[in-house]
Amino acid sequence: MGDRENTRIALLGAPVDVGASRRGTLMGPAALRTAGLAGVLEGLGYRVEDHGDILPRDLKPTNDVPPDNARHYTEIQAWTRALSARAFELARSGVIPLFLGGDHSLSMGSINGVARHWHEQGRELFVLWLDAHADYNTPFTTITANMHGMSAAFLCGEPGLDRLLGDEPRASITPAQLDLFGVRSVDKLEGELIRERGISIVDMRHIDEFGVAVLIRRLINRVKERNGVLHVSFDVDFLDPSIAPGVGTTVPGGASYREAHLAMELMHDSGLVRSVDVVELNPFLDERGRTARVAVELVASLFGQRITDRATPTNAIISPR
After folding, report:
1. Catalytic residue among 75, 124, 168, 280
2. Which residue among 181, 225, 231, 283 is the one 20 to 30 A from 238 at the CA level?
């Protein structure tokens, strides 16, 4: 991320929540802004441009017949096409796009657009999927038919959602360019497909045994060897629910506060991160904005803030009786 004064970060909200089982993530972009995201990044020396939100009135659905087992396909198709086009434009302009969600279905558009740009530059885009879930279902394997659980599979070119982008160019990544990290909930058929494709998957046992530093550095080294760039797709349910309760799909046993910050700090140090998603924040389920604040802190670490630089929150100081 080099010289911060000359590095531009573009915020773009995608208030989509129809891909998830619980509504409310459409409030995520506003919550992240309210928690001070732009100000924190500006305080780190970056030039921040807020491009607002993509709005439903901007979306143009097609007349495609929806496939079976893909809920709200038509709406998500419109979001995917719009996001892919905007992501491509932003990446091509030289900014670091930061997509504010919204449920994880938004990544089908954001990452496709960014991958298209880097493909034109002759470089591979690697995706680090920080998530409690693998999101590698297809309409043929899904139990719920919720499309936020199909995002990673779509990006890797799995069949079943082939017309999702309409006439927008598709820029799939290969399974070797996807790393699932922090996973602790995988459906049976989904797991079989992941194993068949040979996708790198780091579950919480791997993190317990080897530690975040070893595993993140392994990814960084692989991306550097390929002269690639890195997209971080950060689902807040990557974190343990005790830290981040404001999500609709909590799974116990997630990453700790310190593990998450260390992962972000190491990725910043690598200089490889060129685009980011922050997804699945549901303010309706949060506790007085706690999850939004934690998410903003983690994004700050990804962009260079050290955890040792943070002031102690006043509510963490124990006063003598």
Report:
1. 280
2. 225
Calculate the alpha carbon distances from 297 to 13, 85, 95, 309 in Å.
18, 29, 21, 11
Domain that includes residue 163, residue range: 4-308
Catalytic site residue from 53, 179, 187, 237: 237
Cβ atoms 48, 40 nearer than 8 A: no
- Catalytic annotation on 286? no
Q: Are the beta carbons of 100 and 14 closer than 8 angstroms?
A: yes
237 catalytic per annotation: yes
Active site residue 131: yes
Looking at residue 214, its amino acid is V
Rounded-to-10 torsion of CA 285, 287, 289, 293: -110
- pLDDT tens figures, 70-100: 999 999 999 999 999 999 999 999 999 999 9
Catalytic residue among 17, 103, 124, 148: 148
Judge contact between 129 and 151, C-beta under 8 A.
no
- Among residues 53, 75, 103, 104, which one is catalytic? 104
Structure tokens at 208: 């317990």
The total domain count for the chain is 1
User: How far is 109 from 98, CA to CA, in rounded Å?
Assistant: 13
Q: Does residue 105 fall inside a structural domain?
A: yes
Cβ-based neighbour number of residue 188 at 10 Å: 9
At 126-161, the pLDDT tens digits run: 999 999 999 999 999 999 999 999 999 999 999 999
**In a domain? residue 320:** no
Active-site pick, 72, 117, 133, 231: 133
Structural domain includes residue 321:
no
Q: Is residue 317 part of a domain?
A: no
Closest residue by Cα to residue 21 from 250, 238, 252? 250
Q: What is the CATH number of the domain that holds 55?
A: 3.40.800.10
Q: What predicted TM-score, i.e. pTM, was given to this entire model?
A: 0.94
Question: In terms of Cα–Cα distance, which of 236, 237, 247 is closest to 284?
Answer: 247
Q: Locate the DSSP E strands across 259-301.
A: 273-279
